[in-house]
Amino acid sequence: MDVQALEAEGWQVQKKKEKKKEGKEKDSATEKPRSRLGRVQVKPEFLGRIVGPGGRTLEDIQSVTKTEVKVPRPGGGQSIIIEGNPDDVDRAKQIITNILTKGFSPEIVPKGEIVDTMEIPENSEGRIIGTKAVNLQKIQKILSVRVVMPDKTENFEGPKTITLIGPPHQIPKAKAAINQLVREGFSQTTHDGSTRIAFEIPREDLGILVGSGGENIQKIQKETGAKLNIPNEGGDNQYVYVVGTAGAVAKAEAEILKIFQPTEPQKEQEEPETDAAWAEGIEEITF
Predict the structure, then answer these.
(1) How far apart are the C-alpha atoms of 283 and 286, rounded to whole Å?
(2) What are the tens digits of pLDDT across the range 104-151?
(3) Measured between alpha carbons, how far is 177 from 174 in angstroms, rounded to an integer?
(4) Burial of 232 (0-12, 13-18, 19+ CB in 10 A)
(5) pTM score > 0.90 for this model?
(6) CATH code, 33-108
(7) With contact defined as beta carbons under 8 Å apart, do 230 and 205 qualify?
(8) Could you tell me which residues come within 8 angstroms of residue 119 by beta carbon, excluding any fewer than 6 positions away?
(9) Are 45 and 37 in contact (CB under 8 A)?
(10) H-helix or E-strand spanning residue 48
(11) For a surface tag, which of 206, 247, 255, 264 has the fewest beta carbons within 10 Å of its beta carbon?
(12) How far apart are CA 187 and CA 180, in angstroms?
């Protein structure tokens, strides 16, 4: 408990006399600013972003800002406490806010890495992320590039910007993989061992393939195990890409061809011809 708190409770505190250094009083302008506490409210599910892998992000925040940052344990609250000089505390709060809202902070990018951005088309996030975020995980694991997707609360229409953080020589590879994912739902980086084929289908016929409420697409994907990627509306891509194992892709290809293969009309059954000569030899019989 500090002196002011004790005095407020009625305690009498004997203060030590400050010693003069070499007979001169210390210049107040050079005194170290007093420490203060800062507080940032964070939802429990986002605390991991501040701690980072192996606690690295938290260590970087403290090292860069020269503050002490205390993160609550799971179930221990939602407040991150920051202690340090006022300016340093404000800086740490800004870094934490950037991590929570943008997914990263330029001030704590690891040594040897850079921050870059790229624009992606509207409604393409799902292809980039992949099922259970498997595509993002593979890009990070294989290329050592972290991809920060736009905030889900950003519901504006049009292209969006994603951020890439990693070694300079790996950023172009990550961009190439992302562009291929957007276009085809496939990339060599994220779909190693898979194959793909492309169908050029006029845009006016895409509805036939998709079916009512996506019925045809869902049926083909469920029965074959392949993934069908339809061109984004308004994009310049005219191809439908089928991705999966070689066997799954072959099955899906056959199902797609069935949809667009014209059905031959059934021929009407013709009456057997009567031999004219035989018919002339028959006389009308009455009873």
Answers:
(1) 10
(2) 888 888 888 999 999 998 888 999 999 889 999 999 999 999 998 887
(3) 5
(4) middle
(5) no
(6) 3.30.1370.10
(7) no
(8) 159, 160, 161
(9) no
(10) helix 47-51
(11) 264
(12) 6
User: Mind listing the pLDDT tens digit for each residue in 71-111?
Assistant: 988 776 788 999 999 999 999 999 999 988 888 888 888 88
From 243, 251, 255, select the one nearest 183 (Cα to Cα).
243
Residue 287, beta-bridge partner list:
none
Residue 262: per-residue pLDDT: 63
* CA trace torsion 203, 205, 209, 212 (10° rounding): 100
pLDDT at 247 over 90: yes
State the CATH architecture for 195-260. 2-Layer Sandwich (3.30)
For residues 224 and 172, the answer to whether their CB atoms sit within 8 Å is: no
Report which DSSP code applies to 81.
Answer: E
> DSSP string covering 158-212, please?
S-EEEEEEE-TTTHHHHHHHHHHHHHHS--TTT-TT-EEEEEE--GGGHHHHH-G
Q: How far apart are CA 17 and CA 13, in angstroms?
A: 12
CATH match of 114-184 with 3.60.15.10: no
3-class SS at 95?
A: helix
Tell me how long the chain is: 287
Contact indicator for 113, 166 with CB cutoff of 8 Å? yes
Domain ranges of the chain: 33-108, 114-184, 195-260
Report the helix count and the strand count for the chain, using DSSP H and E: 11, 9
User: Could you give the CA distance from residue 95 to residue 89 in angstroms, rounded to a whole number?
Assistant: 10
pLDDT digits (tens, 9 = 90+) for 187-231: 989 998 888 899 888 888 888 888 888 899 999 999 999 999 888
The identity of residue 181, as a single letter, is: L
